[in-house]
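Recall from the previous lesson that a structure prediction takes nothing but the amino acid sequence as input. Here we apply that procedure to Polar amino acid transport system substrate-binding protein from Duganella sacchari. The sequence below is the only information supplied.
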Amino acid sequence: MRLIILTSLLLASGLHAAYAASLQITTEHSPPSSMLGPDGVVTGRATDKIREMMVRTGTDYKIELLPWKRALMQAQTQRGTCVYSTSRTPEREAMFKWVGPTDEAEWQFWGRADHSFPLTSVDDARKLRIGTAIGDARDEYLRSRGFNVDAVSNDLANPQKLLLNRIDLWAVATRSGSTGMAQFDWSDKVVPLLVFHRVKVYLACNPSVPDELIDKLNAALADMRRDGTLTRLDRKYDHYGK
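The prediction returns the following tokens.
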């Protein structure tokens, strides 16, 4: 009996070790943070940081590009799955185990360059129609505070809705100094108007991911911050879209 118990424990330990060293990672198309490169491989500023953490910890992984709602849902419901770049909000705190922050973001209201309404404070936006994305933290944040939100499944439908006057504002997350929007043909017609919140973003992991692996990933990220790797990876994308 003792031999059977010991064998079972060893098998369980081996399975745990194998599981702990492998992650399914999801993200969305959000240049220059995460996007498909010309070779069909997911790349980008945040992606490079995630890959470096995996290499430093010897973690086997796979990155999949999905619509944001699906990417987030998989990390919530599937064992061994993580998602980036995820805003860490009070509503999400208990849903995940967190690695980061990997970056900081500004939440901004964008509107038509020829808009005619005043927007000097967040309260000015309360009477306006705000475009968001389903399942996005900005949608949750504004909706819970009583703003008039109009959510879509694809966030990039919102600038077109602005140009058609179907919404007044678009709630956008952007890293300070980012030029990722410059690649779009509407970039001179849809512009940032007001910063309404600042957040830190993380790799958010399903609670099934072992604490030991979360600790190793956070330690690797801290080392990357100390040795200048994060700064180097950020600078790699400084001129993206220009």
